[in-house]
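Cont'd.
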Amino acid sequence: MKISATVTLKKDVLDPQGKVVNQTLKNMGYKNITNVRQGKYFEIEVDEKNKEKAKKIVDEISKKLLTNIIIEDYTINLK
Amino acid sequence: MKSSVIVFPGSNCDRDIAVALEKFKIKNQMVWHNESSLPKSDLVVLPGGFSYGDYLRSGAIASKSRIINDVINHGKKGGLILGICNGFQILIETGLLPGVLLRNKKLRFLSKNVFLKVTNTKNQFCANYKNKNIIKLPIAHNEGNYFASNNLLKNLESEDLIAFKYCDENGNIDLKSNPNGSANNIAGIFSKNKNILGMMPHPERYIEPILSGKDGALLFESLNKSF
């Protein structure tokens, strides 16, 4: 089963890379872009047929490794 | 005194720190990250560098390596641990030290000398800075911007757990002397029992005048004296 996880910096945490991308887009003439936040995207293949069980495993690894929960949030999506 | 320097793929200050430890009569051995157990040590050092190429987050992969459980147990039992630069980032990722290290505020890799105020000399790492509490050490990092909740910062200040703060040559701790945006100008912190020290500056690079400075030597002398 394929599951994806997206990790982003929490709202209050400064995201310098997102800021630079935002500024560059403005410089390129995209005046209606108001904000960009950069994150990480993981595609995870789990050898597990039960959706809930697979989701639980990905939730666990997101907490333990993929995310630093002090500064980042994550969302999990089943394909 | 016996020390172990843990070597990860991508560590690049491991030999410098080994030379520094030996110079100050600390008997050192190198320990590969994939070893399953830690040899008997009084001090464990996590060296600077780019463990695992900084993949995922600086220090994140190293904090799950095979040797690390023994390092965590060593720290929890009161054993000394010193994390320098990437080693500090690893200590943060293991949870042995609180807070987080973000990218430098101005997004630049910083490689320069900075002045530091030694804010706590009542511990085994910094005792010899008693009569010299403004020092100069090199920094070389991209993620050294220490960030913590207001509560945690208050706690670090009131419990006296801050080891070093960035300052100017006269010891003034202000925005101008803060190279990377760290909260409260923090350059290094202790664990609650002061047996674990994480710091961004590199004491091992300044251990004798021929290397342009010797302010790092006092840290190793303090460690040696504590045993």
